[in-house]
Amino acid sequence: MNFFNYVSSTLVPIKNIERELICPICKELFTHPLILPCQHSVCHKCVRELLLLNHEDSFDAGSECSLPGSPGPRSRVPSPSMERLDRLARSGAFGFGSMSSPGWRRGSVTPRITTFPCPGCQHDVDLGERGMSMLFRNFTLESIVERYRQAARAAVAIMCNMCKPPQQEATKSCMDCKASYCNECFKFHHPWGTPKAQHEYVGPTMNFRPKVLMCPEHEMEKVNMYCEVCRRPVCHLCKLGGSHANHKVTTMSSAYKILKEKLSKAIHYLISKEDQVKTQISHLEVLINETEEKGQLVERRTDENFERLFETLQERKFEMLRSIEQSRMRRLDQLRGQVDEYQGMLENSGLVGYAQEVLKETDQSCFVQTAKQLHTRIAKSTESLRTFHPVADPSFDEFVLDTSREETLLKELCFGGVPDPPIIDLSRSRVYNEGLVCWQLAEDTLATDHQVLEYRKLGVEQDEEEGGSRWRPTVPVYGPSTVVCDLEANSLYSFRVRSCRNSFYSPYSPEVTFHTPPAPVFGFLFNDKCGFSSERLTLSKLRDSVESAAGMAFLLAAERVQTGSYMGLDYIIGDTGISQGRHYWAFRVESHSYLVKVGVASDSKLLEWIHNPRDTSSPRYDHDSGHDSGSEDTCYDLSQPFTLLTVGMGKVFIPKASISSATAGNDHGNRVLPMPQRIGVYLDYEAGRVYFYDANTMRCLYERQVDCTGTMYPAFGLMGSGKVHLEEFIAAKRLSYM
């Protein structure tokens, strides 16, 4: 049984796939879904609402409804016909252009966005000036949603659109007339022997899609090819001179066969692993229950811990308030006693009045007996009057608490646990004599304070008591990347990183290793002046990437070309030359590139190339063309003022006379290698030698002697469609000096 028959025999009931038919924005069944460039689908109305800044001024509120008869309660008006939606989309009503619907004055301009994050993958989707008109309708998904709705409606039938009341149940739908008919009405409106009898009809449906998929960019053209770069159908005009001119395309039938086979194999694999999936689901359910139980247990313990903290604080609070109250009462008693004492000093008060009465005593013995003690009291009061001092201090400074330290300790309590370790991002990290190391933070709801990167050189012999090579930490990093300086050339380094939150450190990330190049980084940009062909080469604004395309002159001359190939290489060099030392640079060649030559060339050879260009009707014109022509073998030992390695169609072509041990021998399989993701070039000017590396693994692919009598430049030659990107670190190093 083949894949297709096996998959067909294990069909899943249509009612079980509802989760795949839900729009990620409105969370309802898809209504007229559109395919975004990232291949995710979103409702037509949802894309429109994302694009329009003013929802109240939308062209037709009725388009927000779903198709009639969809399951579930709905309180929306019927949607406009898809022909009208397509007509509005193609007229630019959803892009930057003016709105012509009610409420809009023709020609008026309203600011609106054309970039939004895809709800499925969060990548930015830029629709450009054409807006929604560049998006394909997902007719396949529409059909599946319609079948799901029919299965959900069950007993609700589709009625004939032509019957007079009472309407009969429809038995078929005409895809050309876009209407449903009962048997009698279909025969009446599609009489035998007329053109209508040739119309295509299907079972009763409410989803009428066009019979042929048209190109959204060229409205009158059918899509008949598939762009492998953009992963979308295109027409022949898109390939001839549109945005897909330099992209690799295949026929629609070939793409259909390949994708259908891949999808069938993937489905077959999933079905064959059903027992494994069920086991993993059972394991996940156990983990869910365990997580629920342990989470509740930790919540209870946390509540108990906080209750104990609250009780301790309440006890300390009660003791503090009691001490303050006792001190307050004692001080009040003392001050009130002092007040009573001073009250006696007044003329009409006790002590003064008593002394006046004693002065009236005439008996000397009695007077002396009483006056002595009285005089002591008055003298004491007089002294107290001269040196007035309250017996109690009204301030309570000794009871004022400084809780800043305790508050800091409480704030530093780590209630979120130890943070998860970050992961070093190999795709974005680049290590030369300086290293740019990037990482991805763990998907944690709590933010981290900072990260610490540590690195060490491997293969260093040290005393055993030192425990081997020591890790060297960087300063705290408040972001997802950092630069490490002063790395030794041609060395192996290991890196790891960890996060810190509230003084708690996460475990270290898995260690990753990088091999530094054999020389420091050489920074340069593409030269847009020396021999640059603006007709066939396109430079980016920063001059860090170059793309080749067939120029108009070549197309106009095509009618004179009957046989053979007479295309020439278009050369471009770096804007900085090398006259001494050892230097290394890296770049990336797009996988769809037809033919790209990369290497070095002297200033003398550049003048010859620019003033005496050669065609490439035969690959034998170059000593190191990379083709199996045999010419390079006879002249290999001659030291040339240039060396170029051939790259193209996802391959690297190693010349036969290469002395690299990795490619020794004359076997074709050894000479044609898969193209690395990144290619590195190392030039030793004094030694007169150039090396080509797989920049990811630092494996030498090819090396050769080169005549370095003049100034050497990084050189590139492109033929046909192709694109070269300089490494960001290479270009950034050059831009920093501009």
Structural key phrases:
7-stranded antiparallel sheet, 738 residues, alpha+beta, flat, 6-stranded antiparallel sheet, 19% strand
What is the secondary structure topology, with strand pairs?
Layout: H1 3-9, E1 33-35, E2 41-43, H2 44-51, H3 82-90, E3 115-117, E4 124-126, E5 136-137, H4 139-153, E6 172-174, E7 179-181, H5 183-189, E8 201-202, E9 225-227, E10 232-234, H6 236-241, E11 249-251, H7 252-272, H8 274-343, H9 350-359, H10 364-386, H11 404-411, E12 423-424, E13 430-431, E14 435-440, E15 450-457, E16 472-473, E17 481-484, E18 492-501, E19 504-505, E20 512-515, E21 537-539, E22 545-548, H12 552-556, E23 570-573, E24 582-589, E25 595-602, H13 603-611, H14 631-634, E26 642-648, E27 651-653, H15 668-671, E28 672-674, E29 679-684, E30 689-694, E31 699-705, E32 712-719, E33 722-726, H16 728-735
Antiparallel strand pairs: 1-2, 1-5, 3-4, 6-7, 6-8, 9-10, 9-11, 12-14, 13-14, 14-17, 15-16, 15-18, 18-19, 18-20, 21-22, 22-33, 23-32, 24-29, 24-33, 25-26, 25-32, 26-27, 27-28, 29-30, 30-31
Helix pairs in contact: 1-7, 9-10
Descriptive account of the structure:
The protein is of the alpha+beta class and 738 residues long. The chain is built from 16 helices and 33 strands. The strands form eight sheets. The protein has a seven-stranded antiparallel beta sheet. It has a six-stranded antiparallel beta sheet with strand order 23-32-25-26-27-28. Strands 15, 16, 18, 19 and 20 form a five-stranded antiparallel beta sheet that branches. The longest helix is centred in the middle third of the chain and has 70 residues, at 274-343.
